[in-house]
Design goal:
single chain, 542 residues, alpha/beta, Aminopeptidase, Glucose Oxidase, domain 1, 2 domains, 15-stranded mixed sheet, three-stranded mixed sheet, 31% helix, 25% strand
Amino acid sequence: MRVAAIALLLCTTAATAQTPPAISVDTLKTVTQTLSSDAYEGRAPTTPAETKTVAYIVERMKAAGLKPGNAGQWTQAVPMVEITATDVKPFVFTGGREPVSLNYRTDMVAGTYRVVPKVDVKDSDVVFVGYGVTAPEKDWDDYAGVDVRGKTVVMLVNDPDWQTPGRDGPFEGRAMTWYGRWPYKFENAAKHGAAAAIIIHQTEPAAYGWPVVQSSWTGPQLELDERGDHMDQSQVIGWMQQAAALKLFASAGKDLGALTAAAQTKGFRAVPLGVKLTTGFGNTIRRQASQNVVGILPGKTAPKDVVLYSAHWDHLGRCDAVDGDDICNGAVDNATGVAGLIALAEAQAKAGPAKRSMVFLAVTAEESGLLGSRYYAEHPVYPLANTVGGVNMDVLNVEGATRDFVLEGAGKSEIEDLAKPIVLAGGRTIAPEPNPERGGYFRSDHFSFAKLGVPMLSGSSGEDLVKGGTAAGHAATLDYIANRYHKPQDQYDANWDWSGAVQDLSVYYTLGRQLADDTSAWPNWYRTSEFRAVRDRSRPAR
């Protein structure tokens, strides 16, 4: 985007933001309560609950005034393969001072991306590969000088410098990078030929406790149904509790604490543990399409240009029971986001068509690794070269109005420059991420679009609550993560305060409207961003 165009759009945006749109709190409440009720069984993809969920979202999009967004259809089929591990054998490590056996669910979880009926790993040499990172641009390679083909790699979660205050450090300090995320670590292990890849779980650097790992990594697991059946991936992927890892390393005659410290320094070299892993399990395989839901408000004069709003409709379905309740309802995560999507559709439709089209996308299988958004990005209904940018909504604020607004992964794209004056015009400040170690930027559906060049805003209320300040806001965040996130307790509460959600949705509305009405606006990534090159290639004329 040209500097003059940015300046003009910022002025227009700041003026327009003085009058927030009418966001229906009734819609937010009704959609959230409905989708998170037990009748929707936790909204697991490819289950009977999906049919009910998709039908309800379509019904609400129609009522909001949208049109079917996929060549006259409301949905986009997303081919899925469901793999359910059966009869999972313990992780048995031999060759150390004494055998170590780790039990499924309590000590470890295991699965596979491979679409095969049976997995067997026998007497696989175990190697500790630090944080499992290969980053040539940082002159960092935890696999340097070691051949792990056919072996088992054990690695740490997050980045090597996650304990560094601020953002100073080779991996942005406290802020998690893509290298710290578990999907990257498994992907990199597979590239190096590892037969098995195991991450050591620690609550603080993982940003969630073991129950989250247990509920997310047991039961049916989804992956895109693609050619080759993912045979290029490791046979086994999984996690082990930190206490179990301490037991394993002690048996191998190694000090996990000392090796962790070594792994945090450049030049670390992988350490064979001198033990072998044996494990295995069967797989029940089911192939079935899931659905993204696509609605559109067609543009008046530039209908081929698209501004995108997205939110994921799925959750975990049936999960580990708590007090007899085995439905992970996913009220906050992410029935609220879908409610926000519908409320925005209503507001934009009432305002009338903009010059550009607005697409409202409810994607599937975010909880399984951003699969629905990844499929859309790789098979877009509307070309990504014509997708101006947009907003992704994953969890709305139900704790009340805030004095601040946080941009996740700040410092990446010009769309942030467009959002800031809207926030300031609403009387709020821009605050740094309070918990950048959680790697939020890489954990939701905007990342699928970012990787292919489309700048999407990922921003929401900060923790400085009007009622209670930052102490109350931070306590609410910690309470949600500890007691409700990915658990049956994430249920609708009639006492929620929606004023913060309305604040954020007003920002999203104004940003989307400005992008859709200014046909000169084409926000790009900053030149320092890892996503700039792909955006430039997709739109060479700009």
